[in-house]
Amino acid sequence: MDALAAKMKFPSKVPPSPTPELIGSGPAMQEVYQLIRQVAKSNASVLLLGETGTGKELIAHAVHRLSPRASGPFIRVNCGALAESLLESELFGHVRGAFTGAVNNRIGRFEAAHTGTVFLDEVDSTTAKLQVKLLRVLQEHEFERVGDTQTIHVDTRVISASNRDLSEEVAAARFREDLYYRLNVVTVYVPPLRERREDIPELVAHFMRVYNEENNRHVPHITPDAMRALEEYRWPGNVRELQNYIERAIVLAPADELTPDLLPEAVLGKRPPRIGRTVDLETLAGALVEQGIADAGPQAENLHARIVNRVEHELITQVMSQCENVQIKAAAMLGINRNTLHKKLKQHGLEK
Fold first, then answer.
1. Which CATH number covers residue 105?
2. FRET pair for 70, CA 20 to 30 Å: which of 117, 152, 225, 348?
3. What is the pTM for the complete model shown?
4. In a domain, 267, yes or no
């Protein structure tokens, strides 16, 4: 561990992450790591759920690298980036003359991922027609190229990801229920950065090291005030947002130290942060306190804790009712993993 990392006082005596790309030693990520190690040994389909920017693709890479398929290809497809006709051709390939512009035969991503893993990012964005073909690949391990009648058999593991609650998409008739259950053999909830703040110093050290090297800079230090601001920020853009801000600070630093003035105003609390899809109870409670519910003084902290507890209790009660007490759906709606929800249900006496 380098000098910067040593100063950060990372937790000791915790199992290392499964792969070097996964950064974080806190309890939330340890749960993810444990599940990754278990599921990687199998051929089961894996569904990764989490907000944008939480690192779902890195998790998918880790599952592949720890699996018996590690020597095979890892093929990523962003299902939300292409129109239906193009995505179908991208996934399953096409033959010459299948459509305008198809001047040659082309293999698809499933065929290219034979003996390996295909990662379907933003799988919720696929159309009903395409979902039928995906279901067939998952069930029968076969398909036809666009414009062809020859059946192709593949041995490919499927890992998919979504930043939406797919059970809600099923309920809204936007996603096939049978495909959902095929993709959802094992679900891994990737926690947002605000639920793993203890990992921020380690992530900062990692990104500082990476962007110093990439930009030929020498900024090995970060001030306590700058680190405090990073740890207290809500991070609606998650790890990807942190990564962006650290790269920006490294590039702009005039000396060998990362200081608060190199960080965006939102991180420093000088303007409201962008509000994400998920409710952040600490931010909400802090805003209530700031708006006059409590004066500054020794009682403010206790009142802040009581507000957090009350808001959390009411929010979980309402969400559980909305989801008909289905914990998987409620956890996804709240933006937390199922184990965290179970602990909070117990804490608030809502287990029944």
1. 3.40.50.300
2. 152
3. 0.73
4. no
